[in-house]
Amino acid sequence: MEKKKVLITGASRGIGKAIALTLSKDYDLILHASRPESLKNLLKELGPKHAVLCADFSDVEATKIFCNALKKLVGQSLYGVVNNAGIALDKPLMYQSMNAIEQMLNINVKAPLLISKTALKLFIPNKEGVIINLGSCVGETGNAFQVVYSMTKAAMVAMSKSIAKEIALIDKTLNIRAITVSPGFIDTDMTKDLPEAVKEKYLEMIPSSYFGHPNEVANVVEFALSEKAKYVNGTNIAVNGGLV
Ligand SMILES: NC(=O)c1ccc[n+]([C@@H]2O[C@H](COP(=O)([O-])OP(=O)(O)OC[C@H]3O[C@@H](n4cnc5c(N)ncnc54)[C@H](OP(=O)(O)O)[C@@H]3O)[C@@H](O)[C@H]2O)c1
């Protein structure tokens, strides 16, 4: 039997890679990274059976081309999207360059927005689909030196909630859901270069007393995508060991 198709953006490393490895047994995947070379290691582990579609989301035109290619690739048989690709360029706001601000807005907000817009149209004929947007605990709490990044992650929460409400108004019989999954401090490339003093400070604030493993986020994404989570919609699921 043909498996359902799920797009995972930013599947080459960290949380996205863990999501790809976790979902690979139950779904046919469309794996994204900024460039094909980034996916070499993952493809060695997964074998050649999954599709690959790459684009640099810092360029909005490239994101539009990616969305068109996605439509061509899946026809009308897309079941899920995991909007995971993201970057954090930390700096006090007053010293942020326009280029860094635009990169974060394009990759963290415009790409998930345009991909969700594309996916919703593809979901309609099958009357089902799930969009998972990767948020962050700082989307709720805010964070020094992450003004732009925190804003982009708060945008994911608003986007998921709004899509859920909008779909219900369009057609109550649609089984289409949108959910945010918001990690806390997860051990990936994104966090590895933070100064030790900063890491120690975070650790003190985490009741579970360790930095999360990418698999621990992937397990929640797997659940959120599944039929078991049919009544989970619009909400923001925290995966943060109690970090507030
Ligand atoms: N790690 C954490 O503690 C943490 C906490 C909260 C939220 N999150 C969120 O979780 C998601 C994954 O984070 P992570 O820690 O796994 O990140 P990561 O290890 O830095 O991986 C980032 C992923 O995004 C892709 N990406 C980066 N720049 C891109 C671009 N210009 N165009 C397209 N794709 C691009 C990367 O692809 P390439 O390999 O090709 O560069 C890579 O697959 C992000 O949305 C992040 O904001 C992470």
Could you characterize the architecture of this molecule?
There is one protein chain. With 244 residues, the protein is of the alpha/beta class. It has one domain (4-239): NAD(P)-binding Rossmann-like Domain (Rossmann fold), CATH 3.40.50. It is 45% helix and 16% strand. The chain is built from nine helices and seven strands; from the N terminus they run βαβαβαβαβααβαααβ. It has helices spanning 14-23, 40-46, 60-74, 98-123, 138-141, 147-170, 189-192, 196-204, 214-225, and strands at 4-8, 27-31, 51-52, 78-83, 128-134, 175-183, 236-239. Helix 1 (14-23) packs across helix 9 (214-225), helix 3 runs parallel beside helix 4 (98-123) and helix 4 (98-123) packs parallel to helix 6. The longest helix has 26 residues, at 98-123. It is globular, with a radius of gyration of 17 Å. The mean pLDDT is 97. The structure holds NADP nicotinamide-adenine-dinucleotide phosphate. The site of NADP nicotinamide-adenine-dinucleotide phosphate has 27 residues, from helix 1 and helix 7.
